[in-house]
């Protein structure tokens, strides 16, 4: 990653832009199967729509992250009975035993002229927000601290991927790609990856290059069992749009799975 050229866009090497959207998950236990099917196919229509619009200039990456939620602060109330309730409620967060699942979508666009790329990316982000409105999308961008410092929310998210914990990434003349790294990553044989953060335990990952998911077994909720596992992990799915076949774009899939303690 290089620099913010727009509140919601960061440049990448090779004349590319990336925009990042946070999505809200849908509880499969509180929805009818028919509703889940509609959401599933709507997401698929979104992939087809943006793929047909931008073709091979577009790449999409989805991130499913499960990580510990920790609270460092202390919460005090005047009534002892309420204090006992507050202590019991926040204890799992303070001990790091509570994990939260989050969903993000990265839109990566190749351009020739930066201004044209920004315009096209704006159109893609608007389309994403509209077509995926049921997932309550939030565009990640730049936030200002109480002290007046500017921080990249996009950089903060990628610090979670690279380091195992989300860290604030302040905007400066340093490239975001350098600012977010607080770990050492080694690539071994057979798509094996080891990540050693400066804080926290080692993490491991592997990658798969797939033509597509098989039609048999691909269904709404097929990752539910993985999401329920009691450990931190990241599931990355990368979709590269290939030239159209009979007028419809199709995609090549890269799947990366990583986890740590």
Number of helices: 6
- How is the main sheet built? 11 strands, antiparallel
Low-confidence stretches: none
Tally of domains: 1
How would you state the average pLDDT, rounded?
Answer: 85
Shape: globular
Explain how this protein is built.
Helix 1 runs antiparallel to helix 3 (114-131). The longest helix has 22 residues, at 33-54. The protein has six helices and 13 strands. 18% of the residues are buried. The chain has helices spanning 33-54, 80-94, 114-131, 153-163, 176-179, 224-227, and strands at 4-6, 9-12, 16-23, 58-68, 99-110, 138-139, 142-144, 150-152, 183-187, 192-197, 203-210, 232-245, 248-260. It has 261 residues and is an alpha+beta fold. The protein starts with a strand and ends with a strand. It is globular, with a radius of gyration of 20 Å.
What would a concise description of this structure say?
This protein has 261 residues and is α+β, with helices and mostly antiparallel strands. The chain is built from 6 helices and 13 strands. Strand 12 and strand 13 form a beta hairpin.
Topology summary:
Blueprint: E1 4-6, E2 9-12, E3 16-23, H1 33-54, E4 58-68, H2 80-94, E5 99-110, H3 114-131, E6 138-139, E7 142-144, E8 150-152, H4 153-163, H5 176-179, E9 183-187, E10 192-197, E11 203-210, H6 224-227, E12 232-245, E13 248-260
Antiparallel strand pairs: 1-2, 2-3, 3-5, 3-6, 4-5, 4-12, 7-8, 9-10, 10-11, 11-13, 12-13
Helix pairs in contact: 1-3
